[in-house]
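Annotated sample (chain length 202).
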Amino acid sequence: MRREETRRMTITAVFAAILIMQTFLPNIGYVRIIPVLPVAITTIPMTIAIYGTLMGTKAGLGFGLFWGITRLIVAYTKPGDMVSLMLFQNPVISVVPSVLAGFFPSLITKAMGKTNYAKLGYIFSGAVTSLTNTIMVILLTSIFFMHDPASLVHYLGNYSSSTPLILILITALGANGVIEAIFTALVVPVIVTPLNLVLKRA
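Output written by the structure step:
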């Protein structure tokens, strides 16, 4: 029992260190590969998906919360762009999508892990983790900025004042979401499959 707890603590410490590096070192967790996009593309959902898949629902929730807190800290200390500053200085927008993103990977893995589609489950969990974050950020932003959309829309691009805010957010942030989901879906099974084998032998 103590050995299992030690192993889980060690894995958590390693992933926490990775997430901290992704958060605070330039172009690791928040990458600007397409300058015209209003916000950076984040690789952190990949880390969240891998950890949640390996460690279970409760651990995934806690790790998602940890991501949300680091996201909030970055928004106040060194935001990479005005959109990130305006969105993620809101604790709800920072934390809620992050926590939910950490919740789903293990659920999907449990549902598909005992079938012949385990690897497909890893792909699906990666995509869902990333899309959960993107969709929740868009939905929460549309709620919090619904009474003053102009303050945000100005930084998202040239849009008509009559365009609904949620459509603007989907257009402006959707490209990020698709790129992140594809990246996460492809990478997660490549990393989780050998890690699972190593952990089972440990």
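Annotation: Helices lie at 2-24, 44-55, 57-77, 82-88, 91-113, 118-144, 150-156, 165-201.
Annotation: The chain has a mean pLDDT of 86.
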